[in-house]
Amino acid sequence: MDESVYKIIDLVGTSTKSWEDAVSSVITKASASLRDLRIAEVKDLDVKIENGKIAAYRARVSLSFKYEKE
Fold it and tell me: Which pTM was predicted?
């Protein structure tokens, strides 16, 4: 039986275009330094407001990846 352990971290991505782009930026950046990403779960969505307008979309994303002993 192959038993695995996964670590979960929360990251926040931002975009001036959309929440989807904010989530995509999290996954793109995380995949550059983390191996074996498995699941991305969007936890919270919010916006940054400046002068009464949306300045940025923000997404808090929980990422899981295979834990490997260093």
Answer: 0.83
Q: Which two tokens stand for residue 59?
A: 């997404």
Q: How many domains does the chain have?
A: 1
Query: CA 48, 29, 26: angle at the middle one, nearest 5?
Result: 40
List pLDDT tens digits, range 3-53.
788 899 999 999 999 999 999 999 999 999 988 898 999 999 999 999 999
Distance of CA 46 to the CA centre of its chain: 14
**34 part of a folded domain:** yes
Give the structural domain span for 10: 6-66
